Amino acid sequence: MNKKMIAAIAGVGLTAGVLGLGAGGAFADGKVTTIDKVAVEATAPQPPKGARAVVQVSPNPPAERGEEVTITGHCGGGEKLNAVLSGFDGKPVLENVRIINDDPHGFVAKATLARGLGNGVGPVFVDCGGEAGVTLLVTHV
């Protein structure tokens, strides 16, 4: 190993140690106090207006073509879940999308993985009436 590699490894180790101590010290008792929440929320950057919806797909990655997935999240200040879109260039990642609950504070939708997909990554978008969100669905089928 040369000096640059040793310095890089030492730097990564030191950084991980400092971050670990910081996180462990702040949350050592497993409880987050209101002061901790305010400090964390105040330092976290906010997404721009219009892009504050949060979306998750599970399972991610799905195991087989045609498998049903669940899309959940919240609208981040948007009105309600209006649509779930997926894919690009006219090739959908999800088919048969059904909105189960359009509540802006906790929406749920179901869909099936498109039959013609292979291994890769595809976007899943949500439209919440003024706010949008996106996540990536990894496919290993």
Order of helices and strands: HHEEEEEEE
> Which structural category do the helix and sheet elements fall into?
alpha+beta
Overall pLDDT level:
79
Shape by Cα distribution? globular
Numbering strands along the chain, what is their spatial order in the largest sheet? 1-2-5-4
Strands, total number:
7
Radius of gyration: 20 Å
- SS summary, helix count: 2
Question: Which secondary structure elements does this structure contain, and how are they paired or packed?
Answer:
Blueprint: H1 3-26, H2 34-43, E1 54-58, E2 68-74, E3 83-86, E4 94-101, E5 107-113, E6 120-127, E7 132-139
Antiparallel strand pairs: 1-2, 2-5, 3-6, 4-5, 6-7
Key traits:
2 helices; three-stranded antiparallel β-sheet; disordered N terminus; alpha+beta; globular; 7 strands; four-stranded antiparallel β-sheet; 141 residues
